[in-house]
Amino acid sequence: MPATSPPDGSPDPLGGLHDALLAWLPGQRWFPAKGREIAGLRTVSHAVISSPDETPTVEHAVIAVAFTDADAEERYQLVLGAQHQPPGDLEHAVIGRRGDDVVYDGLADGRISRLFLALITEDATRGPLRFVAEPGSEAPIVGPGRPLLGEQSNSSVIYGERAILKLFRRATTGLNPDLELHRALRREGSGEVAPLLGAIEGELDGEPMTVAMLQSYASNSADGWSMALTSVRDLLAEADLRADEVGGDFAGEAHRIGKTVGAVHLELARALGTRPLDEAAARDVEDWMLERLDRAAAAVDGVAEQREAIAGVLRGLTAAGPSTLQRIHGDLHLGQELRTPTGWLVIDFEGEPSKSLADRVRPDSPMRDVAAMLRSFDYAAFHQLAEWEQSADEPDPQLERRAQEWADRNRSAFCDGYAEVTGTDPRENPELLRAYELDKAVYEVLYETRNRPGWVAIPLRSMRRLLTPVGRAER
């Protein structure tokens, strides 16, 4: 794709970097299109946000990336640093040269992350970007940010174990739901999320765009996924003990997670309202589920073979009984739960990555979040079993039973905690819960086929179980 000049006819400020960016992008953890052939890119927007006397030059850009296997472009945000000779500790972040300058990923530079924090505390405006402090909040005045390693879809820096700034790499118009829902929960005085401290906002295509958000950092925390895997491993290692007899039993934590998720749902309902899941709304949800099912069936034989049976369950949504629609998390799993010394926090309210922004902000049944958490307990049990048995010639039926015992125990504990806070037991509406669980399993099969083929057996197994239910969901 040739470089595209700005509408005013001036040269593209990133034009000389396009080839370097094409080589750099596939190596970034946040770039989701690994393995896809890039056709080219163009600069959508570009602005210098540093003062003329500041070094390095700090730039914000949005680029559009085109792929050979799709018509639609995908847009990404970049924070760039540029100077004649950057410090040696930034060599790993270099993208390429532009004239006399070396251009690099700006979030790797502590001077840039420190500038962003200062601008937020000042409620400053630099070019098209607005640095906004949350009313009544106080961001810490600390040194440079430290890049957080291991993120998959965004990029973050941590300030002295006290605050974290997250740059949303996917560029979309509209208010990012992560920022929107944190603001709503802050108004409710929620103790289930890390306090919101500020944001960076801009424009894209003449519409508002969320660039980044700043919140308190949950230091001394552990994510639920890692804790759950440790618990499963402890159970599999104790062949003669039940799940409730193992020292690493997770059921107490699963119960507390259920209470936390329930509290978040109640707070979001108070802040943003609810409406009934009537027949028309249920049919809209069904249609979306069936569209996803068709995409998965076209790509995965294991889904295609069961397409009609799955569709039959999804079509039962309209007969599933009374429920409500409201704003929800939308992409909940154990990795989105943080255990701090004082309790559990829910993080990352962006919603399911494969959905458009319009779909991610659309009200849905709280049972989507509940079903996603139940699927996550199942995932933890059988992922750890797969790791445990990877050198075995044949699966061990006893270990499979123990993994299922762990999943059942923790799924039940989660539902107990959720019901204790909300007064609504998800298991009392098994048809609704089953439809949402099955829809989540369909999504998982498609995701794993494209990204982690070695994991696809986990959701396929759950899909078979959900298609042959025995009575009501486990209690």
The structural domain count equals: 3
* SSE ordering: HEEEEEHEEEEEHEEEHHEHHHEEEHHHHH
Q: Note the quaternary state here.
A: single chain
CATH architecture of the largest domain: Alpha-Beta Complex
Radius of gyration from CA coordinates: 24 Å
Instruction: Tell me, briefly, the overall form.
Output: globular
CATH topology of the largest domain: Aminoglycoside 3'-phosphotransferase, Chain: A, domain 2
Description:
The chain has 475 residues and is an alpha+beta fold. The chain folds into three domains: 15-105; 111-216, 2-Layer Sandwich (Phosphorylase Kinase, domain 1); 222-467, Aminoglycoside phosphotransferase (APH), C-terminal lobe (Aminoglycoside 3'-phosphotransferase, Chain: A, domain 2, Alpha-Beta Complex), CATH 3.90.1200. 39% of the residues lie in helices and 20% in strands. It contains 13 helices and 17 strands. Strands 6-7-11-12-10-9-8 form a seven-stranded antiparallel sheet. It has a five-stranded antiparallel sheet with strand order 1-2-3-5-4. The longest helix has 26 residues, at 397-422. It is globular and about 65 Å long. It starts with 17 loop residues before the first helix and ends in an 8-residue tail after the last helix. 40% of the residues are buried.
Report a brief summary of the structure:
By secondary structure, the protein is an alpha+beta fold. The chain contains 13 helices and 17 strands. Helix 5 packs parallel to helix 11 (397-422).
Give the SSE map:
Layout: H1 18-24, E1 38-48, E2 57-67, E3 74-83, E4 94-98, E5 101-105, H2 110-121, E6 125-126, E7 129-133, E8 146-147, E9 155-159, E10 163-167, H3 177-187, E11 196-204, E12 207-216, E13 222-223, H4 224-237, H5 251-272, E14 274-276, H6 279-299, H7 301-304, H8 307-314, E15 324-326, E16 337-340, E17 343-346, H9 357-360, H10 367-388, H11 397-422, H12 430-451, H13 457-467
Antiparallel strand pairs: 1-2, 2-3, 3-5, 4-5, 6-7, 7-11, 8-9, 9-10, 10-12, 11-12, 13-16, 14-15, 16-17
